[in-house]
Amino acid sequence: MTIHYLESAADPRVSDYTQLTDVHLRKLREPAEGMYIAESSRVLRRALAAGHQPRSFFLAEKWLDDLQDVLAAHPQVPAFIGSAALLEEITGFHLHRGAMAAMQRPEPVPLPELLAGARRVAVLEDIVDHTNVGAIFRSAAALDIDAVLVSPRCGDPLYRRSVRVSMGTVFQVPWARLTSWPQDLYLLKEHGFTVAALELTRDAEDVDAVAARNPEKLALVLGTEGAGMSAGTLAAVDLAVKIPMRNGVDSLNVAAASAVAFWELRPRHQAVPAVRGHHGYPL
């Protein structure tokens, strides 16, 4: 194992971990440098299990035993060890989730490859809250969403808060960032998808009515918090879908709404008619 004990917060070898609380800076820096931060032992283990490559590990000495197997499996990857106070000085917050790793950001998957064989796709329009992004990915992984597409201004699914809230499930769901919005929605139509906006409009259909039709391929667009979906996006979709509300509640948080919609709109297998014998009883 390649273990380095830190003595100064100015050590240039740990520059990947500096200013982690500066959201604007990290959103720009991490994609540009081809990296992301996996925070907590569980999350970094999921990143490694997904085949992502570590640049370095970063942890307090008390967590060393917990990660012995990980460090032994990556003997050429440096592990930086420091006191809790020193690690906090470097990162800007108290590191209490075991460990971190700076990971190489995986190469983007081409959109045609991402959509090949997919039946259910989630599309996130300008959702900037990383907690919501992570929660949506967690629901997507749990509820059989085949891929997630994010608009150009959407939050980074690999920002550390998104990754942490998703419990690392963001590594399980293939995703891509669209570059032309909302024009890229027409690419989904070219691939045979019905494109539906989860939005309360005058002509929005109840989610169970759409589910009953069981579309072969469905892309569900989720809008940003507060402002909702843009007019251009609503003009590009095939239909709008709503979740009926009760007791005077007008809407759900976008992450909660995504879970309901993913479940209701999951692909249903067509029932196979029972084969009957000559007496009419099922065989």
What key phrases describe this protein's structure?
alpha/beta, 283 residues, seven-stranded parallel β-sheet, five-stranded mixed β-sheet, disordered C terminus
What does this structure look like?
It is built from 11 helices and 12 strands. The protein has helices at 23-33, 41-49, 68-73, 84-91, 111-115, 130-142, 160-165, 185-190, 207-213, 231-236, 254-264, and strands spanning 2-5, 35-39, 54-60, 78-82, 99-104, 120-124, 147-150, 175-177, 194-198, 205-206, 218-222, 239-242. The strands form 2 sheets. It has a 7-stranded parallel sheet. A 5-stranded mixed sheet has the order 1-4-3-5-2. The longest helix has 13 residues, at 130-142. The chain is elongated and about 65 Å long. Mean pLDDT is 91; it is low at 276-283.
Tell me the fraction of residues in β-strands, as a range: 15-25%
Form type: elongated
Count of distinct strands: 12
Distance between the termini: 62 Å
> Structural class of the secondary structure composition?
alpha/beta
The share of residues in helices is: 25-40%
Work out the radius of gyration.
22 Å
| Assembly annotation | single chain
Q: Sheet bearing the most strands, described?
A: 7 strands, parallel
| Average pLDDT reading | 91
Helix-strand pattern: EHEHEHEHEHEHEHEHEEHEHEH
Number of helices: 11
Q: Looking across the biggest beta sheet, what order are the strands in?
A: 8-7-6-11-9-12-10
User: Uncertain segments of ≥5 residues (pLDDT<50)?
Assistant: 276-283
